[in-house]
């Protein structure tokens, strides 16, 4: 029998993303400061739209924070007990982020319904000025992360969060102007509902992706039957079983499989061919593969799971 591991992209990606640690740290500080500013001013001015945008900016803070945590975890030694490292911390944080955002969006939508029935006076000018500052913060972070988004999956996720939040800040800015210029206080709950509805689909997607990873489903878009057929079509391979593919954290897919080979097969050659196939066709660099003769494969068939 032979077994082996594909090496490469997981560690390489972690080291590459480490180059953006400083930019992510600055982005985190900027977003956190403006989240606090928007939340405080939104509370003081009774602006639901501003509070809604603050909740949205909180997603950016957590998104960048998760990227920082993932980079930091990836650079730590794996150790004897944490054999997969701490990559799942990012996934758990994403799920917690989703639960929090569902609560924030739900609260904003319920409060907005009450505001439609009993419009409340909102200080339009402070709301507009604060929203403009939040928009500026998003643009600064946008510029910081733009280059890294092309090279690091973690940075790209934070970049997309900020890009989407820019839309929310622009909406609140418009609502603040309408309230200040025309005294139309319904603009505030209308913008709040719009931002809340904009957050919910992203939150649902985030929660679904986190849960898929935690229950170890195969990555989206991956055809396991096709992968099994491709492996079975390799020279000297007669059958493939115990094929498992799962995601460790975003952008890090892992696979394991048993390959039954002919009696005269070159196990090293089969192993190399299978690793190359998974790397080139499926972009899976870390694969644990066992090449075994037919008599050893029978034991696997006796297992109940």
TrEMBL record:
**Which protein, by its recorded name, is this?**
Cobalt-zinc-cadmium efflux system protein
Cation efflux protein transmembrane domain mapped to chain residues? 26-215
Q: Where in the cell is it found?
A: Membrane
Q: Which organism is it from?
A: Saccharopolyspora flava
> Which intervals hold domain Cation efflux protein cytoplasmic?
219-293
Membrane protein topology class: Multi-pass membrane protein
Known InterPro entries for this protein? Cation_efflux, Cation_efflux_CTD, Cation_efflux_CTD_sf, Cation_efflux_TM, Cation_efflux_TMD_sf, CDF/SLC30A
Could you tell me the superkingdom of the organism this chain comes from?
Bacteria
Question: Transmembrane segments in this chain: where?
Answer: 24-44, 56-74, 86-110, 122-145, 157-178, 184-204
Name the keywords, alphabetized.
Answer: Ion transport, Membrane, Transmembrane, Transmembrane helix, Transport
């Amino acid at each position: 029998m032979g077994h082996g591991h594909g090496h490469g992209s997981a560690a390489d990606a972690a080291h590459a993303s480490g180059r953006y640690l400083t930019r992510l740290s600055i982005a985190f500080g900027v977003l956190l400061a403006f989240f606090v500013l928007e939340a405080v001013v939104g509370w003081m001015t009774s602006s639901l739209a501003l509070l809604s945008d603050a909740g949205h900016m909180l997603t950016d803070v957590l998104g960048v924070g998760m990227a920082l945590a993932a980079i930091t975890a990836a650079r730590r030694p794996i150790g004897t007990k944490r054999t997969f490292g701490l990559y799942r911390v990012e996934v758990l944080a994403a799920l917690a982020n989703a639960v929090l955002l569902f609560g924030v969006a739900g609260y904003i939508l319920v409060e907005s319904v009450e505001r439609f029935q009993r419009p409340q006076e909102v200080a339009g000018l402070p709301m507009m000025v604060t929203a403009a500052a939040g928009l500026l913060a998003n643009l600064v972070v946008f510029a910081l992360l733009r280059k890294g988004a092309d090279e690091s999956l973690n940075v790209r996720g934070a970049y997309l969060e900020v890009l989407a939040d820019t839309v929310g800040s622009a909406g609140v800015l418009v609502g603040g102007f309408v309230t200040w210029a025309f005294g139309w206080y319904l603009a505030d709950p209308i913008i709040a509902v719009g931002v809340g509805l904009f957050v919910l689909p992203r939150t649902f997607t985030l929660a679904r992706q986190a849960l898929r990873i935690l229950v170890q489903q195969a990555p989206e878009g991956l055809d396991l039957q096709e992968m099994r057929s491709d492996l079975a079509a390799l020279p000297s391979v007669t059958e493939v079983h115990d094929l498992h593919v799962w995601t460790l954290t975003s952008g890090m897919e892992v696979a394991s499989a048993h390959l039954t080979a002919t009696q005269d097969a070159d196990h090293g050659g089969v192993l190399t061919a299978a690793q190359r196939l998974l790397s080139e066709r499926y972009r899976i660099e870390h694969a644990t593969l066992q090449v075994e003769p037919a008599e050893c494969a029978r034991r696997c068939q006796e297992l109940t799971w």
